[in-house]
Amino acid sequence: MKLLLTILSFILTGHSFAQSTFEKANSAYENEQYDIAIQNYMETLSNGEKSADLYYNLGNAYFKTNELGEAIWAYEQAKKINPSDKDIQFNLQFCNDLTVDKLTINNKGIGNWITKVLFSYSHNFWFYISLISVIVTVISLYIFFTPTSTTVNNITLVLGGLFSLILIGSVIIGSIHKARLTEQNRIVIIAPKNKILTQPTPESATSFELHEGATANIKSEQDDWYEVELNSNTGWILKEAVWSY
Amino acid sequence: MKQLYIILFTLYLGSAFAQTKFTAHVNQNSVTVNSIIKYEISSNENCQIYQPDFGGLQVVGGPFQSTSSQFSNINGVTTQSRTTTYTYQLRGQKKGNYTISAAQMDCNGKVHKTESIKINVTDSPAQGNGQNKNSDFYIRVTSSKKEVFQGEPFVLTLKMFSKKQPQGIEALEEGSSTGIIKTDLNPNQTQYETKTETINGMRYYTTILKQQLCYAQVSNKITIEPYYISALFRKGFFQQYRQETTSNKVVVTVKKKPGVQPKDFNGLVGEFDMTHSISKTTVKPGEAIDLNITISGKGNLDTFDEPKLDLPNDFDQFDPEINDKISTSTSGISGSISFNYVLVPTFYGDFNIPAYTFSYFDVNTKKYKTLSTDDFNIHVDKPDNAHGEIITQKKDIKVEETDIRYIHKSGTATFKNEDIKSASFIQYILITLPFLGLWLILYLKKKRNNMSDSDKVLAIKKKAKKTNAKYLQDCKTLHKNGKDAEANKALSLALKRYLKDKFNLTESDLSLNKISEQLNDEELKVKFKSCWNTIEMYQYAPINAEQIDVLINNTENIINQIDKQV
Question: What is the pLDDT of residue B397?
Fold first, then answer.
């Protein structure tokens, strides 16, 4: 038991937040020095550290410097970490309204609701849930196999069954959550105006055009090109024209 | 032979008479505006005649039908020809070229056509032509003012002069004019008063046919085109004849108003006054206030727009009740117009309704003048009832978000991708380990339950020293506390318990002989016997601390030795 606690406490101590850099960036933002703010936010991000607030503030700074594509990228990143934050949703919607291309963005529906419910907690929430379920399940099983009264047996059986289901669920959801936070499967257009080509070669024919701020799914990639899909159209775009998230 | 000639001639004549004549003609091709053109269609057949299209010329009169018959007697044969004539009176109201299309006649399926006729209508003749043309019958249009300001009234009078007494007016057409509003002073006049006047030594019957009050709407020269009338006169005792004429043109100059036009100028020209009244200035919410604004005077009052009051938001406003007492005469429009507003405050407090002002152009002084009401200050009492006496609709809060929301000042802790423990090795270990542990515990438990009796005995034997160590410990504690007699008893118990477990003996078997049999070593046997006996002896004899100390040590040694040997 002591050993378990030690392990838990080791896990619980996350990386310390680069608080000073964050505050520096915020005060730069307050003084309307948006370039400095962006620099400071990006410094933290380049260390591999991230948070919803960090991306959100970065998005604001980008927006203030008229970098619509970058702002949308940052808000999308923030939304990935905290899909239920109202400010993030509002600013992202605000920016999407300013883009040229009309995209079918689904902000409602059961899928979106499930995303909000499952992935709004901290990055290790489902990990802790799985640990708690393991402990409860094991204790229940132990009591179940130790001869006692039938009532206790029934209770522990139900408890053990329930928590083993929660355990399986939390492991699956946790791995999905991890994929959501670490994998990049969408792009946002950064360059002002882009031709989406039918083949990953500069000479090929134009399939359609996209403007800054448009977002699309990545289908595949090849060398310097992404194959993107949006509104059920596909085409190839140079990696340098987009930021992935 | 002669007879034959006659027959032939008759036949010829017959065919000559049978020839259809169908013609159309006008009395003049080129006329001035509003001059009358006579258009005649003649035919010698009694057939259906279709009226032509006059191509935009106005039909003033007609068709008047006339019939003439001609009898002829040639060689004793009497023939009759009958000619029917239809006469139209036409006139062009605007200058230009007009075409009267061909008239058609349908005689039992046989269609006859006339030729189409072109008419050229030229500009009106110079002013005064009307008089010169027919000096015994003419009409004149006069304006009361030659120069007016925009919005200033003037009167147009149409007067007829004739040497003979007119019997009636058959037609009266107004000349067209743009940029003025005309109002007939006697709109439904049917009786005309005829006077006699002497002009240039000649006696004329004069009749005022029309009086119109006019307002200029544009600041420019206004031309009033000639008027047209057709009058009837008596000829002889029973006959009447018709005479037509057009009047002169009238030009009125509209002057620009001097000075700078104020912003609140509303087009009124004349002399005006404004009065106002308010029923009360201290009210409760929901109570109505009557506000009256009355404008009176002379001028184009009928064009006055409803005053726009700048009311506070907490006032309900209704459309005003408008009362106008306006009369029109040759001197212009005069009277008053009043606006009654009903104002209902919906909230308490002090409110200000700014004064209503407007500017008009004073014709007498030829300057702009501004009229103004007072400011209205209204005090609305706080209702006695805490909930208010009136129910008003809840006002929506208008939200217009025109910018992104502000940054988050306090950030939650950051994390790295490596920090995510889900789907990691450590998670799988931490999940698997407890299950492994559980399995192990359950396995061992099960194993123990399945042991045979001899195995169990063996296990008890093996653990004999360990399980009974606490009795020896009790003994030592008692000894320390100086309770030596009790310590001895405890020592006896400790030894017996140990031996019982070690050699799997029952309570009754715990005797010196029985135990000695189990010991193989002779030396140990001796030691054990002496120890046993000593303990037994001290059960009944007093014992001191030193003795018990030695005894405990001995016993301990013996237990250790037995444990080793067996």
Answer: 58
Domain-terminating residue out of B353, B380, B407:
B380
- pLDDT score at B10: 46
Would an 8 Å CB–CB cutoff place A78 in contact with chain B? no
Q: How confident is the model at residue B354 (pLDDT cuts 50, 70, 90)?
A: confident
Task: Assign B319 a pLDDT band (cuts: 50, 70, 90).
Answer: confident
A131 contacts B430? CB cut-off 8 A: yes
Instruction: Give domain A186-244's CATH architecture.
Output: Roll (2.30)
Residue B401 inside a domain? The answer is no
Higher pLDDT, residue A139 or B467? A139
| CA distance to partner chain B, nearest, from residue A87 (Å) | 6
Which of B409, B434, B442 is nearest residue A145 as measured by Cβ atoms?
A: B442
Distance CA A36, CA A43 (A): 11
Q: Where in chain A are the domains?
A: 17-99, 121-182, 186-244
Q: Is the pTM of this model over 0.80?
A: no
A interface test, pick of B399, B418, B427, B444 with most A CB neighbours within 10 Å: B427
Residue A244, min C-alpha distance to chain B (Å): 16
Contact across the interface for A57 and B407, Cβ inside 8 Å: yes
Judge whether residue B41 has pLDDT over 80. Answer: yes
Sheet harboring A186-189: ordered strands across? A206-211, A193-197, A233-238, A225-230, A215-222, A186-189, A242-244
> Quick one: CATH architecture of A17-99?
Alpha Horseshoe (1.25)
Among the listed residues B548, B558, B536, B529, the one whose alpha carbon sits nearest the alpha carbon of residue B475: B548
Query: Per the CB < 8 Å rule, is B412 touching A50?
Result: no
Same domain flag for B154 and B107: no
Pick B565 or B96 by higher pLDDT: B96
Dist CA A81 CA A47 (whole Å) = 17
B446 reaches A (C-beta below 8 A): no
Q: Is residue A61 within 8 Å of residue A42, measured between CB atoms?
A: no
For B462, the domain range is: 453-565
A67 and B CB contact within 8 Å: no
Residue with tokens 């727009």: B305
Residue B60, in any domain of the structure: yes
